[in-house]
Amino acid sequence: MKKVKLVLLVIVIVLFSGNCFAGGSVQFHMEVDRDPGNQKVFTLTVDHFSKWDYGKNYFFLDLAGKDEFKTEAESMYFEYHTYLSVGKIFGIHVPIGFIKESFIAGQYNDSDKDVFGRVFLWGLSADLDLWLDMLSFSAYLRDQIGQDDSYHFTLKWCENFEVYGLKFSQPGFADYWKSDSGSVFISEPQIRLKMSSFFPKGFLSQSAIGSEVEITHDFFGSRYGWEINPTVFWMFEF
């Protein structure tokens, strides 16, 4: 199973890096109250975003360590997202002012421990011209192994701002879907302080420090309800 996932990851990198590469990051998180079980773990996150002539792609990979901050990997989880531009492929203009671009969207999720099993999502997505530097909304049909088909909504955002000359960004996402046991919600807003505020050139200028708060409802199972898991992290963008 692990070999299959690693092969898939390599294929994604090979197909969508190259000339269309736009950027990515490596994030090193320290989680001091990871639920369920109030675990203390390190999590390594690698993500990648790219554009091509007819759309865009995104994926991330999480490697979580064992409890008590052990560096040995305990679990792996990844998502792959692809977006095909309706306008660029079909020449269809969406006549709504606040929609910058619309997409046919698909997503594949998988986890090392099969927390949700394999999940396939397909539907529509739109980049919105409302308030923030980046805002997008996606509506999917959700096909999860072992569950009835259902719906899934995703909101993503990012805002860049400065405070007394310090450069910040505030990215995040929120997912909501229906499972057989109820409604599931997860959101992971971040706040990042860019080191370019202090180091305008060199290696450190591409890094940031920050905090993430994972807010969930029934994400770990219906008996857990609402959970809040804070992290602190260092990241390097490339």
Report on the architecture of this protein:
The chain is mainly β and 238 residues long. It has one domain: Beta Barrel (Outer membrane phospholipase (ompla), Chain C). Helix content is 8%, strand content 64%. The chain has helices at residues 2-16, 86-90; strands spanning 21-34, 39-52, 55-66, 70-85, 99-111, 119-128, 134-144, 150-163, 166-179, 182-187, 190-194, 207-217, 226-237. Strands 1, 2, 3, 4, 5, 6, 7, 8, 9, 10, 11, 12 and 13 form a 13-stranded antiparallel β-sheet that branches. Strand 1 (21-34) and strand 2 (39-52) form a beta hairpin. It is globular and about 50 Å long.
Name the descriptors.
globular, single chain, 238 residues, 13-stranded antiparallel beta sheet, Outer membrane phospholipase (ompla), Chain C, mainly beta, 64% strand
Given as residue ranges, the uncertain stretches (5+ residues, pLDDT < 50) are 16-21
In the CATH hierarchy, the third-tier topology is known as Outer membrane phospholipase (ompla), Chain C
Please tally the β strands and state the result. 13
Amino- and carboxy-terminal Cα gap: 29 Å
Please give the CATH architecture.
Beta Barrel
Class by alpha and beta content: mainly beta
Largest sheet: 13 strands, antiparallel
Tally of separate domains: 1
Contiguous helical run count: 2
Rg (C-alpha, Å): 18 Å
Roughly what is the average pLDDT, rounded to an integer? 87
Strand content: over 45%
Oligomer category: single chain
Q: So what's the CATH class?
A: Mainly Beta
Helical amount: under 10%
Secondary-structure element order, as H and E? Answer: HEEEEHEEEEEEEEE
CATH superfamily assignment? Nucleoside-specific channel-forming protein, Tsx-like
Q: Which geometry do the CA atoms define?
A: globular
